[in-house]
Amino acid sequence: MIMAIEVVIFQIRPTVARADFLQAVEETTTLLKTQEGFLSRTVSQAESGEWLDILYWESIDAAKAAITVFQTDQAGKRFSDYLDGEHFQVFYTDVVSESTERA
Fold first, then answer.
1. Which of 21, 42, 44, 90 would you call most buried, defined as having the most Cβ atoms within 10 angstroms of its Cβ?
2. What is the rounded average pLDDT of the residues 49-58?
3. pLDDT by residue (tens digit) across 63-93?
4. CA distance linking residue 57 with residue 21, whole number of Å
5. How far apart are alpha carbons 94 and 61 in whole angstroms?
6. φ, ψ for residue 11 (rounded to 5)?
């Protein structure tokens, strides 16, 4: 069962090509898959142009522990360099309810 969700809302720099950014997403997903407590990741783009990176973890501690690896790995650094630092928010949430089936 998912215990925590990390939600990152951001914009990429206007000079970054979408294809380059999506390649960075793939590279960092590979990195994240090696991290203790990682469950899954969904990256999407809103109509407004903002991006949503939703990561599912076993715990908030696991999510926060991965930050150091992400910041020191070459793929993580490249991904971070593509982000517009002025339009960046991150939230860590504990799951309080979950439903996976239709009524």
1. 21
2. 96
3. 999 999 988 999 999 999 999 988 899 999 9
4. 23
5. 11
6. -125, 150
Q: What is the 3-state secondary structure (H, E, C) of the chain?
A: CCCEEEEEEEEECCCCCHHHHHHHHHHHHHHHCCCCCEEEEEEEECCCCCEEEEEEECCHHHHHHHHHHHHHCHHHHHHHHCEEEEEEEEEEEECCCCCCCCC
Model confidence pTM above 0.70:
yes
- Percentage of the chain beyond pLDDT 70 is 98
Amino acid (one-letter) located at 13: R
Q: Residue 67: which region, alpha, beta or left (left: phi > 0; alpha: psi -120 to 50)?
A: alpha
Count CB neighbours of 65 within 10 A: 15
96/94 Cα distance (integer angstroms): 6
Structure tokens belonging to residue 72: 């020191």
pLDDT at 11 over 70: yes
